[in-house]
Each structure stands twice: as structure tokens, then as C-alpha cells.
Specification:
Layout: E1 8-13, H1 22-30, E2 41-53, E3 56-69, H2 78-82, E4 88-90, E5 96-98, H3 108-112, E6 119-120, E7 127-128, H4 134-137, H5 144-148, E8 154-158, H6 159-165, E9 185-188, E10 202-203, H7 218-224
Parallel strand pairs: 1-9
Antiparallel strand pairs: 1-8, 2-3, 2-10, 4-5, 6-7
Length: 226
């Protein structure tokens, strides 16, 4: 890998996201990913309760919001530190990539990543993940997920420039504190968003019994790592 010159990342507007999964579908289609393999996932975080009031159930502090999660292209990637073959590295633009010729599919990177980002299979017996659509960016186009969002809730660019243009947070529930890996993600929070470690809700769309392998446990890991 070359010496890093910048740090690209994503801007996500949680206040605009409706959880339609257009970004997830566009990523899957563009990269021709098999069933059960998703490099971008929509996580629904919700909470509150209901109580009986006569013949009706009344909501109490009920809330829900969405997060669109992919590789965070962290400044200090846990996946890179865990890789025994140096197959994971950072490019000049700060993106985290997998060298398929070096990867032996041991899955240590997946276990280390608090976002459940690196996933097994899809490209032989190697790990795979979002590379921020390097091929599209090389010809001046946006990542597929960004252009697919009907609410324009996703954007990308140098994370420092994004922070200068937008007021946001580097993490909200159910993401871990940014200090774990320094993720290159800026979140414009939903009005119900809660800070990491202070959440009163839970992930509402955990994968069902038909989910394929450990790679689909990413949302669960996000909730467990604080």
C-alpha cells in the first residue's frame, strides 16, 4: 500500500433515512454479491414500550431510526491489525482494502472488526468488503450506494472536509465509541438518536435463522461492542 494522503469516508443523514434499503440493494447489485452477503446493511434501532389503557395499547417513549452501515474505512482499522498475512491495508485515499492474493480466509479480520464489516466468501475463499466503489470513483462517479439513495441521505468525501461542512456525530447507538478504531463516518443524527453506551433501545432487524454464516452477524456485534 502507498503512503496515505487523505482519509475518505461517508456522511450519513439519519434524520432523512427511511430504511428503504436502496443503498444496500445498489451495493449488492453493483458488486454482484451472492445471497446472504451484504457489504452495506440497514440497521433499525428502536425502543420504548406500550401499556394497556382500557381497550387500547398506548405507546410510551416509542422511537425508531435507521443507520446505513458499511466499512467505516477507519483511521486505525482493527481488521488490519488482526490480519496475519498483511492482506488488509490502507490506500493513499485512506480506504481500507483487501489484497485477495494475500488473503487466506482465516476470518480474523471479521472477528476483530466491531462493525462486522469483512465477510467471508463471494470472491473465492477470501474475505470481502466495501472499497468505497474504487472503480466508480476512478472515473469520477459516486459510490453506488450514494447515487441510489432517494432521500440523498448518503454522501462521501474527505472526512475532515465533511466535518467542516456538516454538523454531526462520529457515532450514535448502536455503533461503538469512535475511539475503538476512529471510523471515517459522520452521522447527522435523527432527533431520536442516542449516544453510544447510553442507548435504551435495541436492534430491531437482526438476521433470521435463514441468514448465511457469521458474516451476517454484523448488526449483533455492533450492539455488543461498546
Amino acid at each position: 500500500m502507498s503512503k496515505q494522503q487523505q482519509q475518505l469516508g461517508f456522511l450519513f443523514d439519519s434524520s432523512a433515512c427511511i430504511g428503504c434499503k436502496a443503498c444496500q440493494t445498489a451495493c449488492k447489485d453493483k458488486n454482484d454479491l451472492p445471497v446472504g452477503l451484504n457489504w452495506r446493511r440497514i440497521v433499525e434501532y428502536s425502543g420504548g414500550d406500550w401499556e394497556e389503557d382500557g381497550e387500547h395499547m398506548v405507546p410510551i417513549d416509542v422511537f425508531a431510526y435507521y443507520l446505513s452501515i458499511s466499512c467505516q474505512h477507519c483511521a486505525e482499522p482493527a481488521c488490519m491489525a488482526a490480519c496475519p498475512t498483511t492482506a488488509i491495508g490502507k490506500e493513499e485515499d485512506g480506504t481500507v482494502v483487501v489484497d485477495l492474493e494475500k488473503c487466506m480466509g482465516c476470518q480474523y479480520c471479521s472477528w476483530a472488526c466491531p462493525y462486522g464489516t469483512p465477510q467471508f466468501s463471494g470472491f473465492g475463499e477470501c474475505m470481502s468488503k466495501c472499497d468505497l466503489c474504487a472503480d466508480l470513483r476512478s472515473i469520477g462517479e459516486n459510490p453506488a450506494c450514494v447515487d441510489a439513495c432517494p432521500l440523498r441521505a448518503l454522501d462521501w468525501g474527505d472526512i475532515n472536509e465533511l466535518e467542516q461542512k456538516h454538523e454531526g456525530l462520529r457515532a450514535v447507538e448502536p455503533l461503538p465509541e469512535r475511539g475503538h478504531t476512529e471510523p471515517s463516518l459522520l452521522v447527522i443524527p435523527h432527533h431520536h438518536s442516542q449516544l453510544p453506551g447510553q442507548g435504551t433501545g435495541a436492534i430491531a432487524n437482526l438476521p433470521g435463522p435463514g441468514a448465511r454464516g457469521k458474516s451476517e452477524l454484523g448488526p449483533t456485534k455492533i450492539r455488543e461492542v461498546k
